[in-house]
Amino acid sequence: MPGNAGDEQTLPWVGAQRSYAGWVPNVRSHLSFSVIGASRRAEAYSREFKGRSRLVMAFERRTSLDYPLPEWFVRRRWPDLTQHWLLEGTTRPVRVFHPDSDDPDLTRDRQGMLVGRVHILPHQAEPDWRDRQGHAILRIREELMLAPSRPRDAELEALRAQIVSLATHGSLNRIEVQFALLRTGEVRLWFADETTPSIEGDGEDEDDLRRIAEQAYFFVKDVVHDHTHHDPSSDQITPLVEINPRDADPSHVGEVAWRRETLWSLSREIERLNRDGGLVDRRRSLGIVAYAQAFQSGLMGHLRDPSSPTGFRKAPAVYDYDFAHLKESIRASIDVASTAKAQAVQLTIAVTATVISSISLAASLTSAHNGSQIRDENGGPAHSIGFAEGTAAIRLLAHDPFLSGGVVAILLLGVLSATLADGEAGLFNPLQRVISQLSRATSISLARSSRKQVGINWGLHVLASAAALCTAIACLLVLVAALGG
After folding, report:
1. pLDDT tens digit string along 109-119?
2. Residue 220: closest CA among 137, 116, 121, 122
3. Rounded to two decimals, what is the model's pTM?
């Protein structure tokens, strides 16, 4: 691994042939390495090391869930989609960006970078190697579970060497990826020359290396941060970007390119959640906005520059997003959607209650009508009304209380909802907007005073409501008259 570990200006990924950059979403720009893996499925171990550093190890079984199937079924049906992942690294000093100072005491974090390796233990097809790997995995888990809570430095070194040895000799075709994780969430991945998987230089092999790096990136993100604003199974809101790929656009390469790609990806996710999602997704988008603001303020405006006294320089060709106004727009859309949903719930309850009461009214009127009729020789009413009788429209309404109740409910609630249920905002259907627009247009045409316009606008709404109410009352009168006859 290049560079001197004691020099905070040395960047271990510089000079690597295949280097990648990404970002672990966080809003504080100060990740804590001591809690890595604390809330995830990984077995993790983190202890202070040599008084000025920290040793971190995490081990996890991961299954590539590209199918909408349970994980246990995928593991049995396609065992090669399951791998075991080991992260091991130590912290070291690094220069951090401070916008107003180049004081070494303010710009140096003595444990600001976690540097180490990610070991990938693939599925073993051969039975002998599969048994050997299974034994090594059990030993690794036992070592982490039984590791001392207050270890000496020699014990930590022995523990790390033992676990790495088990991972190295317990799997055939083990893959190793170098990584560096900074407190800001910046992640660097690269392949060391001596451990890069053998490739022949064709495009497919290059794509395989990129896919390996991406899976290592997802593993690091999974054990480092909580998936608060997105589903853990789809942790792709921030991409892994290759630094200076061979086929890159010369105007979109290097340190600026991965920053742009990350911010664009966050912005696209915000737009997707607001365009395609419901209330929950819109509220989640506010969390993604917080991520984007943290990334923009913490990493977009500067680049590392070892020749600068501060260790950083201003980033060229980088522009900021106006997330403050975007956040207000999202909050407004959440308020509107919440109001619409609340009114829809109220309307549903009102429809249900009105249908039930209308059917009860029709049934009681039918019973009263049949009770007042002269009895025939069988003891029943001579001119009774039943639920299945009636031919003409009025007679059908009079003879079928269920149909009568439904008609009354539809007329009453349908028209009232079109005129009274927040008609100004037009939340339910196009008819509301038509009535509201007609009312506003009429009020503007008839009056110039804003007070008069408001009066005319509301007066037309009252007339529309009265018309709806009169229609419902007329239906009830027809029903009562038919049943009473």
Report:
1. 788 899 999 99
2. 116
3. 0.70
